[in-house]
Amino acid sequence: MTFNPKELDQLHFNREYRDTQNENLKGIATEFVDIQREREVMHKRLSSTLLKPTGGGNPEVVAARTSRNGTEYDTLHEHMDAMELNLDNNTNNVSDLLAYQAKIKKVINVDGAVDVNYWVSVLTGSDSNSGTISSAPFKTIQKALDLIPRDAESGTITIKIIDGTYSEDLVLRNKRGTHIFLVGNTDSPTNVRVKSIYAVNITGAYLNISGIEATSGSKHGFHYDRCDYANTTNCESLLANKISGMSGIYYSASKGVVAGCKVQLCENGIIANFNSQITVEANNTGGGNTYGITSARSIIHKYNNNTITGDTKNEYTYAGGLITNGGII
Fold first, then answer.
1. 50 and 124 housed in the same domain
2. Among the three residues 81, 107, 133, which one is the final residue of a domain in this structure?
3. Residues in Cβ contact with 12 at an 8 Å cutoff, skipping those fewer than 6 apart
4. Are 194 and 214 in contact (CB under 8 A)?
5. Based on the domain organization, do 92 and 132 belong to the same domain?
6. How many independent structural domains does the chain possess?
7. Which of 156, 290, 159, 265 is nearest to 212 (CA)?
8. Alpha-carbon distance 125 to 131, whole Å?
9. H helical segments located in the chain
């Protein structure tokens, strides 16, 4: 097997590349098994070249000087030297193959998982760029989201969003096994603005959104639907129109954590619905909402130092919903 070492430094993570590398790894495994078998045969061959004390007949000597592929050496010593050289070469081949396999596994495993960063800049980017280096970012966040593999056993995708106003209603749908990080400006979330983010059916991994402001007047700011674990940290949701039913951060049949966020002018600042279970950590703020924190058919564990308020109620439960104080009912 031959390979160009530079290709590991020029990776462009797409499904075609991952599939190719998966086949390479399968080939390495097959070749490794073949080499191991060859080593076993050679060891047996070496053992069989030792003449028996009762031997000495010409047929036995000829057999000892003949290789498995039919090559006849002048002396038994030459045959043993050749076999030792083959063993050394195969040992080196195994080492090379295992080293190459280790390099590949740093960026892609046999199940197709990847670790990759994407950069996005609405001001300087283009969706025709690679997006994998900061000097060639995408223009839209949705472009990066669409490149996340649908199904993987592990791996992490980090999307780094440069300051700007992104007029996008983002959708992340049907992803399994890949940890996903959307990172804006965690010091000043209002510097990275989107309309809304809707994540649905994200399973077997974490979804982490941080440093982003959602400003939609017609949709939930951050909406998680059937997500195994979704974190919202250091984000803001400003739904200026305060349309009935629109919430700043909405968990539906999902689990996750909200920490350090600001939600204001929403129907519900934070809401958990349809058997969700979320933790509202400390330092969440916001006012001008109809309801501050709402739980319906769900459980919210709320901790101290939260100052999310609602004009009607700061905390509202219905349909069997529960809000605990740090897990204490």
1. no
2. 107
3. 130, 132
4. yes
5. no
6. 2
7. 159
8. 8
9. 15-48, 58-64, 76-107, 141-146
